[in-house]
Design goal:
The complex is a heterodimer of chains A (109) and B (514). With 109 residues, chain A is mainly β. In chain A, 4% of the residues lie in helices and 43% in strands. Chain A is built from 1 helix and 10 strands; from the N terminus they run ββαββββββββ. Helix content of chain B is 39%, strand content 17%. In chain B, the strands form 3 sheets. In chain B, strands 10, 11, 12, 13, 14, 15, 16 and 17 form an 8-stranded mixed β-sheet that branches. The longest helix of chain B is centred in the first third of the chain and has 17 residues. Classes of the chains: A mainly beta (109), B alpha/beta (514). The interface between A and B is large, with 30 and 51 residues.
Chain lengths: 109, 514
């Protein structure tokens, strides 16, 4: 313990009890993402999948329960149905596309 | 004459098997920077202490061409020996034989040595280096793994179980290490994952290397699946030997007791902690100013650095330390640090190792990411672990102990046996700044000069509450002590707690917040 100087540059950590100085952040803290509320006009993929069918096109009016698209994931075929009434603004995927999780697939007006 | 020819035959059989998968396979192993299974056992165990069993076990599979394959020892070496004089049971998978793959007899050998370890109450060390299930043996390979996982669970908390990942450990195989107490990994050699890069590429279209997906660093720094990180196999063996000589051999024995030694003079407890409570310091310097010879075996050093856990000795007796670490994340509690500490506390409790807690934290880390990651249930693990533990528990509050953090870090209320505080300790429901933001908010907002009122309120709170004496007045702490008295007080507490016996309601087991 010849040199007890902890570090050159101090970083800040804020808690409800005040702001405190520290030398390092954890990797998980450094990689944290700011929270974004979900956008009800965006349809994001919730699982990595392959698109096998798109049942609507831009401009279509949809009602709750209408099938929007079909995809294959984990060896199972799945459908995504409209949850509310609305009009399709844009479709960003095509049949055959392999999409990751969290990809914007469709937008509503 | 007859006995001589029989002895000769025995030697020839043993020699043939000792070469494992043959010279070519051994060369491939070396080219990857890896030792052979036999070399590993010899390097790890005390000299000439290894006795091998089931050398002559053979598989009897006959599907997919197996009937034509000779697999020495069926790809795994089992036996007993000693480490620093402590009897241990060991198995080492032999990657040179069918890629160290697990078949029925391979698994039977491992199950056998696990049974011996449990029955004889000695530590189990498993050296994992295997391509996984031997597909040709089908369900028999799965059965083999299941038998191993069950035994890991059965032995959990009875004998120390150590996994050493010296090669691939993938798919189902990796659940065995996950069920053991300490996982040792070596940079560039260890690989652990449930589904590997090939499957991830096929199913998800994502590209990632084995090292990036589940290498030694990933599991030491990010996943928390590994507990000890080494840069070479030799360094790893030194770490294992150090650990075995420090922990009890089973749950009814004490750790090897050695002669006491004073902490090294260069660790001066009076020089570590700055007076300004916002400035950080390395709590390991405090630990080393308390332990015999300033020796400290840190566990999970690279994961959740905001809490430090590990083993040290005080007056010859092994104790487990849990300490907030101000130089990382200001020592806050969060999901990962709660997990890390809770599991370590439960290990110490299972194996009769007293726990010494050093406290200096500003509470829990706020954030949506923490909340959505379940800091409620992870944080609760720490409360559960401290409350459940019936080993002697000694807590020293070094500095900050605000709010929920005060309760969680081995407080008297969770039945710590002795709680001491340094004179600079701040034991309060809020930190002074937090108090200004919350308790005095209205008063500050409505004041003529809010900034001055705020400063005054913080000062007022500091003087009245940010000290150890309010808690001392209620007997929530046992004593306020000077830093240089700490080792003396802790050593005395440990010595009087030697026969601690507390009764708890009979139950099969509780339901910890998994």
């Amino acid at each position: 313990m010849s040199n007890n100087k902890s570090c050159e540059e101090l970083l800040s950590v804020q808690t409800m009890h005040g702001t405190f100085k520290t030398c390092a952040y954890t990797p998980s803290f450094k990689q944290r993402k700011a929270w974004q509320p979900a956008n009800p006009k965006h349809l994001l993929s919730f699982i990595p999948s392959t698109i096998i069918g798109i049942e609507v096109k831009a401009g279509d009016e949809v009602s709750p329960g209408d099938v929007l698209l079909r995809f294959k994931a984990m060896k199972m075929d799945n459908t995504i149905k409209a949850e509310t009434a609305g009009r399709i603004k844009a479709i960003h995927v095509a049949v055959g596309d392999k999409v990751a999780k969290g990809v914007l697939m469709m937008e509503f007006e | 004459m007859q006995i001589e020819s029989k002895l000769y035959e025995l030697e020839k059989r043993k020699e043939k098997i000792s070469h494992g998968g043959g010279m070519k396979a051994i060369e491939k192993q070396k080219a990857m920077g890896k030792l052979t299974a036999r070399e590993r056992i010899i390097a790890l165990l005390d000299a000439d202490s290894f006795h091998e069993y089931d050398i002559f076990v053979e598989h009897d599979a006959h599907d997919f061409g197996m009937q034509n394959k000779e697999l020495p020892g069926d790809g795994v070496i089992i036996g007993t020996g000693s480490i620093c004089g402590v009897p241990v049971a060991i198995f080492a998978q032999d990657f040179t034989v069918a890629g160290g793959s697990l078949g029925l007899m391979h698994a039977r050998k491992i199950s056998k040595i696990m049974d011996y370890a449990l029955n004889m109450r000695m530590p189990l060390i498993g050296i994992n280096d295997s391509g996984g299930a031997r597909i040709q043996e089908g369900v028999n390979a799965l059965a083999g793994y299941g038998e191993i996982f069950f035994r890991n669970t059965l032995s959990s908390g009875v004998i120390p179980q150590i996994s050493v990942i010296l090669g691939p450990c993938a798919g189902g195989a990796v659940y065995s290490p996950a069920l053991t107490d300490f996982v040792f990994v070596v940079d560039n050699i260890s690989k652990m994952f449930i589904t590997g890069p090939e499957v991830i590429k096929t199913v998800l279209g994502e590209e990632i290397s084995q090292e990036e997906l589940g290498g030694a660093r990933v599991h030491s720094e990010i996943t928390g699946n590994a507990h000890f990180f080494a840069t070479s196999e030799e360094e790893c063996f030194v770490q294992i030997r150090k650990l075995i000589s420090t922990i009890p051999a089973n749950n009814t024995e004490k750790a090897p007791l050695i002669e006491t030694a004073e902490p090294k003079p260069e660790y001066d407890i009076n020089q570590v902690v700055p007076g300004d409570p916002t400035i950080p310091y390395d709590v390991r310097n405090v630990i080393k100013s308390l332990t015999d010879d300033s020796d400290f075996i840190e566990v999970m050093e690279l994961f959740a650095g905001n809490i430090v856990v590990g083993f040290g000795r005080i007056e010859g007796e092994t104790v487990g330390f849990v300490a907030n670490q101000p130089i990382v994340m200001a020592g806050v509690l969060d999901c990962d640090s709660s997990d890390k500490a809770a599991r370590f506390i439960r290990y110490c409790d299972a194996f009769n190792i007293p726990i010494v807690t050093l406290e200096d934290l500003p509470g829990y880390l706020p954030g949506v990411d923490q909340e959505h990651a379940g800091v409620i249930r992870h944080g609760a693990k720490l409360l559960y672990a401290y409350s459940e533990a019936t080993v002697p528990k000694i807590t020293v509050i070094l500095r900050k102990a605000y709010g929920g953090g005060y309760i969680a870090m081995g407080s008297r209320h969770l039945r710590a046996d002795f709680v001491f505080a340094w004179p600079g300790a701040e034991i309060a429901v809020m930190g002074p700044e937090g108090a200004a933001n919350i308790i005095f908010r209205k008063e500050i907002m409505e004041a003529e000069n809010p900034e001055e009122t705020r400063k005054a309120k913080i000062q007022e709170y500091k003087e009245k509450f940010a000290n150890p004496y309010v808690a001392a007045a209620k007997g929530y702490i046992d004593s306020v002590i000077a830093p240089e008295e700490t080792r003396r007080f802790v050593a005395h507490a440990l010595s009087v707690a030697k026969h601690k016996t507390v009764l708890r309601p009979t139950k099969k087991h509780g339901i910890p917040p998994f």
